[in-house]
Amino acid sequence: MGYLKSILFCVFVAFGGFLFGYDIGVISGCLVMPDFINRFGEPTGPNGEMVLSATRQSLITSLLSVGTTIGALAQAFTADSLGRRASIAFWAGIFTIGVAIQISTTYSLGQIVFGRFFAGLGVGAMSAIVPLYNGEAAPKKIRGALLALYQFQIMSGLFISYCIDLGTSNIANSASWRIPVGIQMLWGLILILALFILPESPRHLLGLHREDEARRSIAILNNVPIDDILVHETIDELREAIREENEGGKATWIECFSHRNKLYWRTINGMMLQFVQQLNGQNFYYYYGDTFFKSANLNMSAYVIQVILGGVSVVATIPGMYVVEKWGRRTSLLVGALWQAACAIIAGLVGHYTLAPVGTPPDQLTARNIAGGDVLIAFAIIHVFAFNMFWGPVPWVYLGESFPLRVRPKAIALGSATNWVWNFLLGYFSPTIADEIGPLITMVFFGMLIYGTVYVYFFVPETKGLSLEEVDEMYRSGVKPWNSAKFKPHDRHLHAKEHGDLNKPVEFVPETEEGSLGQGSGEKKDSAREETTYVENA
Q: Could you say which residues form the signal peptide (predicted)?
């Protein structure tokens, strides 16, 4: 019960991911709706029939990502100036305005595109603020799972958007696309409530020297009295960490790439994981699955296939929240990359060599064509399942727990912006590439997944079970990533008594030569002035 409030608050904040997922999914359905095509397409088809060209599809889809890139960077200023809580409400308002711009148009492609860009500002900002807030508010023992909630919410939004698209796809007028797009205003309004419900990040408050408010926030998040020993311990730990971080003066963007505390390494890792995440291949299925799966010549509606993909995505994130804490971040990424790479190469080669040309009449399909289509869909689904169990949540977990307070908003912004830059490039160029090489586009994703496997092994350390301050210590220690799971931080926390026991004086537990004393052990051992304690097998 001690973590209940933290969990509820983090779930609420992670709803920002719902906006992200819903907006990705809803547009893929709109692109094949007859009324949407008639309003925003071009008369280039047979007998002047309206067609939504690959160029226009790319423009409508990818302009959201331009806005999200800018929003992800801009939130770094509002997160510090307005605070985490008010910043969430501010960007939720921007998103809501963008949705209103989209649904108020009649035939203006420019208005649709601008509305998606404006809504993208809010979506991009949320993609950075959510891991920022949850990383600072969540207890370290369950921080990975709570940060992974962001991916669960993304996939929930995606699934709901597919279901609503399916439900409105047979409406003959503009309600077919106005309803699924317009309902996003409700999602934005829900997040605006954050201003009145959420406690502010205690790390942010203490950084502003508002200690009394920070104490109240810690007490609320951990569901303990304000005079509980946990509150005192956390304040002392944060105060010391903030003092160390602020010795260098005001943080700048350049500092994210400085050698101080290996910040350059952490920032590049955060950006690289987001880069590989986008080129996993899953977003191609989400954005253009309706169109791409038609090449498999299935009797099943493309909308139904998307609903299946969405449902699989939501289900996969549930064991993902367990695995990220049980296996750790590195193992999850390595297993996921190899699993998805196998799916990508099978889907690409089978699709290329067995599928019939697009437009082949159903009665002319051979058994080989039909079997090839089934295999393509099956491995696309398995690929999506693996992504949402591993590479969907873990890069966001890593982003939320890898940076010190002084540069955290900026470093997370750089990681989120990287995600959106590649989201834009994928969204803009994928239709053209798929038109040229068909299912072989998955070979591009295969290559990126192999690259991701190598990168994670050599450059990404394990951060499971460490507080944000202990992550700093690990990077300073110089431990090799492949040995980082053995890292043992100094125990600099207060463990003199159980929560709520204030009768005894509070004591610091001395550091030891042999590493951590364990969580809350209360034992005392001889102190040693080592920078870190690192245990490695000979």
A: none
Longest dimension (CA), the chain: 87
CB neighbours of 149 closer than 8 A, spacing ≥ 6? 10, 11, 14, 17, 134, 321
Is residue 337 situated within a structural domain? yes
pLDDT in tens, 158-186: 889 989 988 898 888 899 999 999 999 99
Would 232 be classed as within a structural domain? yes
CA 102 centroid distance within chain: 25
Token pair of 420 as six digits: 């959106």
Confidence at residue 335, expressed as pLDDT on a 0 to 100 scale: 95
Q: Is 395 exposed, middle or buried (0-12, 13-18, 19+ CB in 10 A)?
A: buried
- The CA dihedral of 43, 49, 55, 57, to the nearest 10 degrees, is 130
DSSP letters for 120-172: HHHHHHHHHHHHHHHHHHS-GGGHHHHHHHHHHHHHHHHHHHHHHHHHHTT-S
CA distance 478 to 206: 29
What does the alpha-carbon distance between residue 397 and residue 149 come to, in Å, rounded to a whole number? 9
Phi and psi, residue 176, nearest 5°: -60, -35
517 lies in a domain?
no
Same domain, 244 and 264: no
Place of tokens 């860009």: 117
Closest CA to 81 of 197, 191, 202, 208: 208
- What domain count does the chain have? 3
Q: Mark whether 149 and 231 lie in a shared domain.
A: no
Q: Considering only CA atoms, which of 438, 478, 194 is closest in space to residue 294?
A: 438
Domain limits at 88?
Answer: 1-198
Burial class from Cβ neighbours inside 10 Å (0-12, 13-18, 19+) for residue 257 reads middle
**pLDDT in the model for residue 96:** 93
Picking from 380, 292, 387, 313, the residue whose alpha carbon sits closest to that of residue 344 is 380
Position with higher pLDDT, 461 vs 355: 461
Nearest to 27 by CA among 121, 125, 117, 162: 162
Q: According to the model, what pLDDT value does residue 297 have?
A: 54
Query: In the structure encoding, which two tokens stand for residue 121, read together?
Result: 């500002």
Domain final position from 446, 470, 486: 486
Alpha carbon 370 to chain centroid, angstroms: 36
Give the HSE-up count for residue 3: Cα atoms under 13 Å, Cβ half-sphere.
13
The residue-averaged pLDDT of 21-45 equals: 85
According to DSSP, the β-strands at 533-534 and 487-488 are antiparallel
> From CA 485, how far away is CA 465, in angstroms rounded?
10
Taking CA 257 as the corner, what is the angle to CA 255 and CA 261, rounded to the nearest 5 degrees?
75
Instruction: Say if residue 363 is in the same domain as residue 436.
Output: yes
Q: Is 518 left (phi over 0), alpha (psi -120 to 50) or beta?
A: left
CA 214 – CA 212 distance, rounded (Å)? 5
Read off the DSSP letter of residue 42.
B
Helix, coil or strand: residue 37? helix
Compute the distance between CA of residue 266 and CA of residue 517 in angstroms, rounded to an integer. 27
